[in-house]
Amino acid sequence: MRVELALAVSLALLLIPLSFIDDIVNPSPHALVYTSEASGQFPSWLHREWYELYSGSLLLHVNDTVTIELRVSGCELRRGVYEYRVVHHSSGKDYAARGEVGALTLLPIFTAELGGVHALQVRVKLEGEGVCEYQLRVTAVRGDKSGYARVYSLEAAAGLISVSAVAAYVAVRRREAA
Amino acid sequence: MKLLKLVKWYLGFFHVWAFSLAFFFAYVFTYDRFAILTVSPSWDSLVNSAWSLQEPVLMAAHAALVAAVLFSFEEGEGYSYLRHLAGAGRLQVFAAKWLAYLLLTAPPLAAARSLLAASWDYRMLARPGFAQALAKLLAGAALQASYLFPFYAFWALASKRATYFVVGAFLELYLLESFWGGPLLVYRSHLMLLRLPFDPALGWLARDLGARIAASLAHLVAAAYLEARGEVKWR
Predict the structure, then answer these.
(1) Which residues of B touch A34 (CB under 8 A)?
(2) Is A90 within 8 Å of B120 when comparing Cβ atoms?
(3) Where do the domains of chain A lie?
(4) A147-174 pLDDT per residue, tens
(5) According to a count of CB atoms within 10 Å of the terminal CB, is the N or C end of chain B lower?
Protein backbone atom coordinates (compact mmCIF):
# COMPACT_ATOMS: atom_id res chain seq x y z
CA MET A 1 0.00 0.00 0.00
CA ARG A 2 2.89 2.33 0.81
CA VAL A 3 4.39 1.78 -2.65
CA GLU A 4 1.02 2.51 -4.29
CA LEU A 5 0.69 5.73 -2.30
CA ALA A 6 4.23 6.84 -3.26
CA LEU A 7 3.48 6.04 -6.88
CA ALA A 8 0.20 8.02 -6.75
CA VAL A 9 1.91 11.07 -5.21
CA SER A 10 4.77 11.06 -7.72
CA LEU A 11 2.34 10.52 -10.61
CA ALA A 12 0.38 13.56 -9.36
CA LEU A 13 3.64 15.54 -9.26
CA LEU A 14 4.27 14.57 -12.86
CA LEU A 15 0.81 14.65 -14.48
CA ILE A 16 -0.77 17.75 -12.87
CA PRO A 17 2.03 20.13 -14.02
CA LEU A 18 1.99 18.45 -17.44
CA SER A 19 -1.75 19.12 -17.83
CA PHE A 20 -1.21 22.75 -16.71
CA ILE A 21 1.59 23.07 -19.32
CA ASP A 22 -0.91 21.72 -21.85
CA ASP A 23 -3.31 24.55 -20.86
CA ILE A 24 -0.47 27.01 -21.61
CA VAL A 25 0.56 25.46 -24.94
CA ASN A 26 -2.93 24.59 -26.26
CA PRO A 27 -5.28 27.14 -24.72
CA SER A 28 -8.98 26.68 -25.46
CA PRO A 29 -9.88 29.55 -27.82
CA HIS A 30 -12.98 30.69 -25.92
CA ALA A 31 -10.96 31.22 -22.72
CA LEU A 32 -8.37 33.57 -24.26
CA VAL A 33 -10.39 36.75 -24.09
CA TYR A 34 -13.17 37.92 -21.81
CA THR A 35 -15.32 40.88 -22.83
CA SER A 36 -18.28 42.54 -21.23
CA GLU A 37 -20.17 45.65 -22.27
CA ALA A 38 -22.34 48.02 -20.34
CA SER A 39 -24.26 51.03 -21.53
CA GLY A 40 -26.77 53.49 -20.12
CA GLN A 41 -27.55 57.10 -19.31
CA PHE A 42 -26.62 59.48 -16.56
CA PRO A 43 -29.65 61.25 -15.23
CA SER A 44 -28.95 64.99 -15.12
CA TRP A 45 -29.48 65.18 -11.38
CA LEU A 46 -26.58 62.83 -10.84
CA HIS A 47 -24.07 65.32 -12.18
CA ARG A 48 -21.36 66.44 -9.76
CA GLU A 49 -21.70 63.22 -7.78
CA TRP A 50 -19.74 59.99 -8.01
CA TYR A 51 -21.66 57.57 -10.19
CA GLU A 52 -20.69 53.90 -10.39
CA LEU A 53 -20.45 52.80 -14.02
CA TYR A 54 -19.13 49.30 -13.56
CA SER A 55 -18.28 46.91 -10.80
CA GLY A 56 -17.49 43.25 -11.13
CA SER A 57 -15.02 40.62 -10.10
CA LEU A 58 -12.81 38.65 -12.45
CA LEU A 59 -10.51 35.70 -12.00
CA LEU A 60 -7.16 36.75 -13.52
CA HIS A 61 -3.76 35.12 -13.64
CA VAL A 62 -0.30 36.70 -13.60
CA ASN A 63 0.30 38.93 -16.67
CA ASP A 64 -3.35 38.95 -17.78
CA THR A 65 -4.39 42.46 -18.81
CA VAL A 66 -7.65 44.33 -18.42
CA THR A 67 -8.53 47.17 -20.78
CA ILE A 68 -11.51 49.44 -20.20
CA GLU A 69 -12.85 51.77 -22.87
CA LEU A 70 -15.42 54.44 -22.05
CA ARG A 71 -17.42 56.45 -24.59
CA VAL A 72 -19.61 59.37 -23.54
CA SER A 73 -21.95 61.03 -26.01
CA GLY A 74 -25.14 63.12 -26.27
CA CYS A 75 -24.25 65.84 -23.81
CA GLU A 76 -22.03 68.86 -23.57
CA LEU A 77 -19.28 67.79 -21.24
CA ARG A 78 -17.57 70.60 -19.35
CA ARG A 79 -15.50 68.52 -16.99
CA GLY A 80 -15.33 64.84 -16.14
CA VAL A 81 -13.23 62.75 -13.79
CA TYR A 82 -13.02 58.98 -13.49
CA GLU A 83 -11.77 56.81 -10.66
CA TYR A 84 -10.67 53.31 -11.53
CA ARG A 85 -10.00 50.86 -8.76
CA VAL A 86 -8.84 47.24 -8.76
CA VAL A 87 -8.58 45.20 -5.58
CA HIS A 88 -6.93 41.79 -5.39
CA HIS A 89 -9.18 39.99 -2.94
CA SER A 90 -7.04 37.47 -1.12
CA SER A 91 -4.03 39.74 -0.57
CA GLY A 92 -6.00 42.98 -0.22
CA LYS A 93 -3.70 44.74 -2.70
CA ASP A 94 -5.32 47.90 -4.01
CA TYR A 95 -4.62 49.63 -7.35
CA ALA A 96 -6.27 52.94 -8.21
CA ALA A 97 -6.06 55.54 -10.97
CA ARG A 98 -7.78 58.87 -11.63
CA GLY A 99 -8.00 60.90 -14.81
CA GLU A 100 -10.04 63.11 -17.11
CA VAL A 101 -13.05 61.82 -19.02
CA GLY A 102 -13.40 62.82 -22.68
CA ALA A 103 -15.67 61.68 -25.47
CA LEU A 104 -13.53 58.55 -25.77
CA THR A 105 -11.47 57.55 -22.75
CA LEU A 106 -9.07 54.64 -22.57
CA LEU A 107 -8.50 53.82 -18.92
CA PRO A 108 -5.00 52.70 -17.89
CA ILE A 109 -4.30 49.08 -18.81
CA PHE A 110 -4.24 46.91 -15.71
CA THR A 111 -1.76 44.02 -15.69
CA ALA A 112 -2.31 41.48 -12.94
CA GLU A 113 0.80 40.81 -10.86
CA LEU A 114 -0.92 38.22 -8.66
CA GLY A 115 -3.23 35.43 -9.67
CA GLY A 116 -6.68 35.41 -8.14
CA VAL A 117 -10.02 37.13 -7.93
CA HIS A 118 -9.88 40.84 -8.65
CA ALA A 119 -12.69 43.28 -7.92
CA LEU A 120 -12.93 46.06 -10.54
CA GLN A 121 -14.77 49.32 -10.08
CA VAL A 122 -15.13 52.38 -12.31
CA ARG A 123 -16.75 55.58 -11.02
CA VAL A 124 -17.19 58.92 -12.77
CA LYS A 125 -18.09 62.46 -11.82
CA LEU A 126 -19.33 64.58 -14.70
CA GLU A 127 -20.29 68.21 -15.11
CA GLY A 128 -22.19 69.35 -18.18
CA GLU A 129 -25.50 70.00 -19.89
CA GLY A 130 -28.08 67.44 -20.99
CA VAL A 131 -28.30 63.69 -20.60
CA CYS A 132 -25.10 61.75 -21.14
CA GLU A 133 -25.16 58.33 -22.74
CA TYR A 134 -22.24 56.05 -22.05
CA GLN A 135 -20.84 52.83 -23.39
CA LEU A 136 -18.28 50.87 -21.43
CA ARG A 137 -16.34 47.89 -22.71
CA VAL A 138 -14.20 45.70 -20.46
CA THR A 139 -11.73 43.36 -22.14
CA ALA A 140 -9.53 40.92 -20.26
CA VAL A 141 -6.82 39.26 -22.34
CA ARG A 142 -4.56 36.35 -21.48
CA GLY A 143 -0.96 37.48 -21.05
CA ASP A 144 2.43 35.81 -21.36
CA LYS A 145 2.54 32.52 -19.43
CA SER A 146 6.22 31.59 -19.88
CA GLY A 147 6.95 32.06 -16.16
CA TYR A 148 4.24 29.55 -15.26
CA ALA A 149 5.59 27.20 -17.94
CA ARG A 150 9.06 27.31 -16.39
CA VAL A 151 7.76 26.55 -12.88
CA TYR A 152 5.54 23.71 -14.08
CA SER A 153 8.37 22.16 -16.14
CA LEU A 154 10.54 22.06 -13.00
CA GLU A 155 7.69 20.41 -11.07
CA ALA A 156 7.16 17.88 -13.86
CA ALA A 157 10.89 17.08 -13.85
CA ALA A 158 10.74 16.48 -10.10
CA GLY A 159 7.71 14.23 -10.64
CA LEU A 160 9.47 12.27 -13.37
CA ILE A 161 12.49 11.71 -11.11
CA SER A 162 10.31 10.50 -8.22
CA VAL A 163 8.20 8.22 -10.47
CA SER A 164 11.38 6.61 -11.80
CA ALA A 165 12.77 6.27 -8.26
CA VAL A 166 9.61 4.44 -7.08
CA ALA A 167 9.60 2.27 -10.22
CA ALA A 168 13.28 1.37 -9.73
CA TYR A 169 12.58 0.47 -6.08
CA VAL A 170 9.69 -1.80 -7.12
CA ALA A 171 11.85 -3.45 -9.80
CA VAL A 172 14.69 -4.15 -7.33
CA ARG A 173 12.25 -5.61 -4.74
CA ARG A 174 10.65 -7.84 -7.39
CA ARG A 175 14.04 -9.16 -8.50
CA GLU A 176 14.98 -9.88 -4.86
CA ALA A 177 11.67 -11.67 -4.32
CA ALA A 178 12.07 -13.82 -7.46
CA MET B 1 -18.28 -3.03 11.70
CA LYS B 2 -19.03 -5.88 9.31
CA LEU B 3 -20.16 -3.20 6.87
CA LEU B 4 -16.92 -1.21 7.17
CA LYS B 5 -14.85 -4.37 6.71
CA LEU B 6 -16.79 -5.12 3.53
CA VAL B 7 -16.41 -1.53 2.28
CA LYS B 8 -12.66 -1.66 2.87
CA TRP B 9 -12.50 -4.89 0.98
CA TYR B 10 -14.55 -3.58 -1.95
CA LEU B 11 -12.26 -0.53 -2.23
CA GLY B 12 -9.36 -2.85 -3.01
CA PHE B 13 -11.48 -5.17 -5.21
CA PHE B 14 -9.61 -5.61 -8.54
CA HIS B 15 -7.63 -2.44 -7.63
CA VAL B 16 -10.76 -0.47 -8.53
CA TRP B 17 -9.33 2.53 -6.60
CA ALA B 18 -6.86 2.94 -9.51
CA PHE B 19 -9.81 4.14 -11.63
CA SER B 20 -10.33 6.96 -9.10
CA LEU B 21 -6.74 8.12 -9.48
CA ALA B 22 -6.95 7.95 -13.27
CA PHE B 23 -10.23 9.88 -13.32
CA PHE B 24 -8.77 12.51 -10.97
CA PHE B 25 -6.05 13.16 -13.56
CA ALA B 26 -8.64 13.14 -16.35
CA TYR B 27 -10.74 15.79 -14.56
CA VAL B 28 -7.65 17.97 -13.98
CA PHE B 29 -6.73 17.58 -17.64
CA THR B 30 -10.14 18.81 -18.87
CA TYR B 31 -10.23 21.88 -16.61
CA ASP B 32 -8.66 25.14 -17.79
CA ARG B 33 -5.98 26.33 -15.38
CA PHE B 34 -5.75 29.78 -17.02
CA ALA B 35 -9.42 30.54 -17.66
CA ILE B 36 -10.51 34.16 -17.24
CA LEU B 37 -13.88 34.00 -15.50
CA THR B 38 -16.35 36.17 -13.63
CA VAL B 39 -16.16 34.76 -10.12
CA SER B 40 -17.19 36.16 -6.78
CA PRO B 41 -14.49 35.98 -4.11
CA SER B 42 -15.65 32.99 -2.08
CA TRP B 43 -14.61 29.35 -1.99
CA ASP B 44 -18.13 28.28 -3.03
CA SER B 45 -17.89 30.38 -6.17
CA LEU B 46 -14.32 29.34 -7.03
CA VAL B 47 -15.09 25.66 -6.55
CA ASN B 48 -18.26 25.95 -8.65
CA SER B 49 -16.40 27.73 -11.46
CA ALA B 50 -13.85 24.91 -11.76
CA TRP B 51 -15.92 23.05 -14.31
CA SER B 52 -15.49 21.57 -17.75
CA LEU B 53 -17.89 20.44 -20.45
CA GLN B 54 -16.49 16.89 -20.31
CA GLU B 55 -16.89 16.53 -16.54
CA PRO B 56 -20.47 15.08 -16.38
CA VAL B 57 -19.69 12.42 -18.99
CA LEU B 58 -16.41 11.51 -17.28
CA MET B 59 -18.20 11.11 -13.96
CA ALA B 60 -20.93 8.91 -15.47
CA ALA B 61 -18.29 6.77 -17.22
CA HIS B 62 -16.44 6.38 -13.93
CA ALA B 63 -19.67 5.39 -12.16
CA ALA B 64 -20.43 2.80 -14.86
CA LEU B 65 -16.94 1.26 -14.65
CA VAL B 66 -17.06 1.02 -10.85
CA ALA B 67 -20.56 -0.50 -10.99
CA ALA B 68 -19.32 -3.03 -13.55
CA VAL B 69 -16.49 -4.12 -11.26
CA LEU B 70 -18.63 -4.24 -8.11
CA PHE B 71 -21.71 -5.96 -9.57
CA SER B 72 -20.69 -7.92 -12.65
CA PHE B 73 -17.52 -9.65 -11.52
CA GLU B 74 -18.36 -10.64 -7.98
CA GLU B 75 -20.40 -13.83 -8.51
CA GLY B 76 -18.65 -14.84 -11.70
CA GLU B 77 -15.17 -14.64 -10.21
CA GLY B 78 -16.19 -16.48 -7.07
CA TYR B 79 -15.49 -13.55 -4.81
CA SER B 80 -18.79 -13.90 -2.94
CA TYR B 81 -17.06 -16.17 -0.38
CA LEU B 82 -16.11 -12.99 1.43
CA ARG B 83 -19.77 -12.44 2.24
CA HIS B 84 -19.88 -15.85 3.90
CA LEU B 85 -16.61 -15.14 5.75
CA ALA B 86 -17.92 -11.80 7.05
CA GLY B 87 -21.30 -13.34 7.81
CA ALA B 88 -23.11 -10.42 6.19
CA GLY B 89 -26.55 -10.56 4.60
CA ARG B 90 -27.09 -9.82 0.95
CA LEU B 91 -28.69 -6.43 1.57
CA GLN B 92 -25.76 -5.50 3.80
CA VAL B 93 -23.50 -6.36 0.88
CA PHE B 94 -25.61 -4.09 -1.34
CA ALA B 95 -25.23 -1.22 1.17
CA ALA B 96 -21.47 -1.86 1.39
CA LYS B 97 -21.20 -1.72 -2.39
CA TRP B 98 -23.11 1.57 -2.46
CA LEU B 99 -20.79 3.07 0.20
CA ALA B 100 -17.67 1.82 -1.60
CA TYR B 101 -19.05 3.19 -4.89
CA LEU B 102 -19.61 6.63 -3.29
CA LEU B 103 -16.10 6.60 -1.80
CA LEU B 104 -14.67 5.76 -5.21
CA THR B 105 -16.63 8.15 -7.46
CA ALA B 106 -17.23 11.36 -5.45
CA PRO B 107 -13.73 12.23 -4.08
CA PRO B 108 -11.83 12.41 -7.41
CA LEU B 109 -14.19 15.10 -8.71
CA ALA B 110 -14.14 17.08 -5.46
CA ALA B 111 -10.35 16.77 -5.21
CA ALA B 112 -9.80 17.90 -8.81
CA ARG B 113 -12.11 20.89 -8.43
CA SER B 114 -10.59 22.00 -5.15
CA LEU B 115 -7.06 21.49 -6.51
CA LEU B 116 -7.89 23.81 -9.39
CA ALA B 117 -9.50 26.40 -7.10
CA ALA B 118 -6.46 26.31 -4.79
CA SER B 119 -4.02 26.65 -7.69
CA TRP B 120 -6.01 29.62 -9.02
CA ASP B 121 -5.51 31.50 -5.77
CA TYR B 122 -3.63 29.72 -2.99
CA ARG B 123 -3.79 32.84 -0.79
CA MET B 124 -7.52 32.14 -0.41
CA LEU B 125 -6.54 29.11 1.73
CA ALA B 126 -5.99 31.55 4.59
CA ARG B 127 -9.66 32.54 4.29
CA PRO B 128 -12.36 30.51 6.03
CA GLY B 129 -14.94 28.52 4.12
CA PHE B 130 -12.73 26.05 2.27
CA ALA B 131 -13.76 23.06 4.39
CA GLN B 132 -17.46 23.92 4.06
CA ALA B 133 -17.16 24.35 0.27
CA LEU B 134 -15.33 21.02 0.02
CA ALA B 135 -17.98 19.29 2.14
CA LYS B 136 -20.76 20.76 -0.02
CA LEU B 137 -18.93 19.67 -3.15
CA LEU B 138 -18.52 16.13 -1.83
CA ALA B 139 -22.19 16.04 -0.86
CA GLY B 140 -23.22 17.24 -4.34
CA ALA B 141 -20.98 14.69 -6.07
CA ALA B 142 -22.36 11.96 -3.79
CA LEU B 143 -25.92 13.02 -4.71
CA GLN B 144 -25.20 12.77 -8.44
CA ALA B 145 -23.40 9.45 -7.94
CA SER B 146 -26.34 8.13 -5.90
CA TYR B 147 -28.75 9.19 -8.65
CA LEU B 148 -26.77 7.12 -11.20
CA PHE B 149 -26.10 4.17 -8.87
CA PRO B 150 -29.49 2.35 -9.09
CA PHE B 151 -29.56 2.45 -12.90
CA TYR B 152 -26.04 1.08 -13.26
CA ALA B 153 -26.47 -1.45 -10.45
CA PHE B 154 -29.70 -2.82 -11.94
CA TRP B 155 -28.32 -2.96 -15.49
CA ALA B 156 -25.12 -4.64 -14.29
CA LEU B 157 -27.09 -7.23 -12.32
CA ALA B 158 -29.63 -7.88 -15.08
CA SER B 159 -27.31 -8.03 -18.11
CA LYS B 160 -25.66 -11.33 -18.87
CA ARG B 161 -22.07 -10.12 -19.18
CA ALA B 162 -20.03 -7.20 -17.84
CA THR B 163 -19.15 -6.33 -21.44
CA TYR B 164 -22.81 -5.98 -22.40
CA PHE B 165 -23.41 -3.71 -19.43
CA VAL B 166 -20.37 -1.47 -20.08
CA VAL B 167 -21.16 -1.18 -23.79
CA GLY B 168 -24.80 -0.38 -22.96
CA ALA B 169 -23.86 2.25 -20.37
CA PHE B 170 -21.43 3.93 -22.78
CA LEU B 171 -24.03 3.81 -25.58
CA GLU B 172 -26.41 5.60 -23.21
CA LEU B 173 -23.74 8.31 -22.76
CA TYR B 174 -23.27 8.47 -26.52
CA LEU B 175 -27.00 9.23 -26.91
CA LEU B 176 -26.21 12.70 -25.49
CA GLU B 177 -25.30 13.58 -29.07
CA SER B 178 -28.60 12.29 -30.43
CA PHE B 179 -32.27 13.24 -30.55
CA TRP B 180 -32.96 11.56 -27.17
CA GLY B 181 -30.23 13.56 -25.48
CA GLY B 182 -29.22 10.73 -23.14
CA PRO B 183 -32.13 9.05 -21.32
CA LEU B 184 -30.45 9.54 -17.90
CA LEU B 185 -30.09 13.32 -18.42
CA VAL B 186 -26.51 13.16 -17.17
CA TYR B 187 -25.78 16.81 -17.93
CA ARG B 188 -28.88 18.28 -16.30
CA SER B 189 -28.74 16.09 -13.21
CA HIS B 190 -25.01 16.77 -12.84
CA LEU B 191 -25.51 20.53 -12.98
CA MET B 192 -28.53 20.50 -10.64
CA LEU B 193 -27.48 17.90 -8.06
CA LEU B 194 -23.90 19.16 -7.71
CA ARG B 195 -25.23 22.65 -7.06
CA LEU B 196 -27.98 21.48 -4.71
CA PRO B 197 -25.94 21.81 -1.47
CA PHE B 198 -24.87 25.33 -2.58
CA ASP B 199 -28.36 26.61 -3.36
CA PRO B 200 -31.19 24.23 -2.51
CA ALA B 201 -33.64 24.84 -5.37
CA LEU B 202 -35.95 21.90 -4.63
CA GLY B 203 -38.84 23.17 -6.75
CA TRP B 204 -36.68 23.20 -9.88
CA LEU B 205 -35.31 19.82 -8.98
CA ALA B 206 -38.77 18.29 -8.60
CA ARG B 207 -39.98 19.81 -11.86
CA ASP B 208 -36.94 19.02 -14.03
CA LEU B 209 -35.75 15.73 -12.58
CA GLY B 210 -38.72 14.42 -10.56
CA ALA B 211 -39.55 11.65 -13.04
CA ARG B 212 -35.90 10.61 -13.34
CA ILE B 213 -35.44 10.48 -9.58
CA ALA B 214 -38.59 8.36 -9.28
CA ALA B 215 -37.20 6.04 -11.98
CA SER B 216 -33.92 5.93 -10.09
CA LEU B 217 -35.71 4.87 -6.89
CA ALA B 218 -37.65 2.20 -8.80
CA HIS B 219 -34.36 0.86 -10.19
CA LEU B 220 -32.95 0.88 -6.65
CA VAL B 221 -35.78 -1.37 -5.43
CA ALA B 222 -35.33 -3.68 -8.45
CA ALA B 223 -31.53 -3.87 -7.98
CA ALA B 224 -31.92 -4.57 -4.26
CA TYR B 225 -34.41 -7.33 -5.12
CA LEU B 226 -31.99 -8.91 -7.61
CA GLU B 227 -29.10 -8.62 -5.15
CA ALA B 228 -31.18 -10.09 -2.32
CA ARG B 229 -32.38 -12.97 -4.49
CA GLY B 230 -28.79 -13.93 -5.14
CA GLU B 231 -27.59 -15.31 -8.42
CA VAL B 232 -29.64 -14.10 -11.34
CA LYS B 233 -31.36 -17.11 -12.86
CA TRP B 234 -31.14 -16.09 -16.51
CA ARG B 235 -27.38 -15.70 -16.43
Answers:
(1) 36-38
(2) no
(3) 1-29+156-178, 33-141
(4) 999 999 999 999 999 999 999 999 999 8
(5) N
Contact assessment for residue B11 and residue A4, using Cβ atoms and an 8 Å cutoff: no
For testing contact with chain A, the best of B20, B33, B49 (most A CBs within 10 A): B33
**ipTM > 0.90 for the complex:** no
Displacement of CA B45 from its chain's centroid (Å): 22
The residues, ordered by sequence, that sit 6+ positions from B41 with a Cβ below 8 Å of its Cβ are: A57, A89, A90, A117, A119, B124
Q: In this prediction, what percent of chain B has a pLDDT beyond 70?
A: 95
Q: Give the DSSP letter string of B55-84.
A: HHHHHHHHHHHHHIIIIIHHHHTTTTHHHH
How big is the A-B interface in CB pairs under 8 Å? 86
The dihedral formed by the CA atoms of B163, B167, B168 and B173, expressed in degrees to the nearest 10? 150
Stated as kind and residue range, the H or E segment containing A67 is strand A65-73
**In contact, A131 and A110? CB cutoff 8 Å:** no
| pLDDT at residue A112, as a whole number | 95
CATH topology classification for A33-141: Jelly Rolls (2.60.120)
pTM score = 0.91
Interchain contact, A23 vs B33, CB within 8 Å? yes
Chain A CA closest to residue B30: A19
DSSP code, position B126: G
Of the partner residues B25, B32, B41, the one whose CB lies closest to the CB of residue A89: B41
CA B82: distance to chain centroid?
A: 24
Query: In this complex, which of B21, B32, B115 lies closest to A23 when CB atoms are compared?
Result: B32
* Of residues B63, B58, B48, the one with CA closest to residue B191: B48
Closest CB to A31: pick one of B36, B38, B124. Answer: B36
